[in-house]
Amino acid sequence: MAQSIEMCLPKDQLKKRLTCLVCKDIFKDPYQLPCPTLNKYTANPFLHVSDDLLTVRRLKNPQYYPPHPLRFTEDPQVLSTQCASHGRHYWELEAEGSWDIAVTYETITTTLSAFGTDAQSWSLRHDSKGRLFAYHTGERQRIHKSLTHNTIGVVVDFYEGEIIFKEMGTTYNHLHTFEVDLNQPVCLGLGLFRPDLNTTISVKKNYSG
């Protein structure tokens, strides 16, 4: 029987070999790892990052963050601290409201770039009307599907050259695949819009194999 852990492992635990619904199709030997934490130094002032660095919430008014060269100054975005540089990876998130979930090179210019508007990032956007779009190099592609769950799975496959977004529930629903040639480490990127929709994203799972 497949096992599924709902929350991330504490950082002080060793990685644990597990199986999960989506991992069966991706990994031969999946391992669950501690979740990638969010990098407060990159967080835009309109974002509040939780104390455990796993949840981010959109604010109506900006809060004070000290200046930092990595900080997003134009767009309400944040990056993960940990990046992936090889192999296959699966991240699972819970997202509410109007949001952007992206895979991005860690070298992205945080002062200017919105996810998906350049060649350094690939994003899935859920707008305030519930519509889904895929973005890369500024090109927008409408995804003619609607979400019935708030859980999104992200697969990064350096071997096959793919970034895959899935909706996760009792089964999973493929949303979009980017064909990519990844030549640098990539991070998880989160964008949050519309504070009136209680826009929030939490990182829940992290598998590798």
Question: Would you give an account of this structure?
Answer:
By secondary structure, the protein is an all-beta fold. It has one domain: Sandwich (Jelly Rolls), CATH 2.60.120. It contains no helices and 15 strands. It is globular and about 45 Å long. It starts with 15 loop residues before the first strand and ends with a strand. The model is unreliable at 1-7 and 9-19 (pLDDT under 50).
Describe the secondary structure blueprint for this structure.
Elements: E1 16-17, E2 31-32, E3 47-49, E4 55-58, E5 77-84, E6 88-96, E7 98-105, E8 121-126, E9 132-136, E10 139-143, E11 151-157, E12 162-168, E13 172-179, E14 186-193, E15 200-208
Antiparallel strand pairs: 1-2, 2-15, 3-4, 4-15, 5-14, 6-11, 6-15, 7-8, 7-14, 8-9, 9-10, 11-12, 12-13
Q: Name the poorly predicted regions.
A: 1-7, 9-19
What would CATH call the homologous superfamily?
A: SPRY domain
What is the mean pLDDT? Answer: 86
Gyration radius (Cα, Å) is 16 Å
Number of helices: 0
User: Considering DSSP H and I runs of 4 or more, what fraction of the residues is helical?
Assistant: under 10%
Q: What general form does the structure show?
A: globular
Q: What oligomeric state best describes the polypeptide chains here? A: single chain
Distance between the termini: 19 Å
Strand content: 35-45%
Q: Helices and strands: which structural class?
A: mainly beta
The total strand number stands at 15
CATH class: Mainly Beta
The CATH architecture can be named as Sandwich
Give the H and E element order: EEEEEEEEEEEEEEE
Biggest β-sheet description:
9 strands, antiparallel
**CATH fold topology:** Jelly Rolls
Query: How many structural domains?
Result: 1
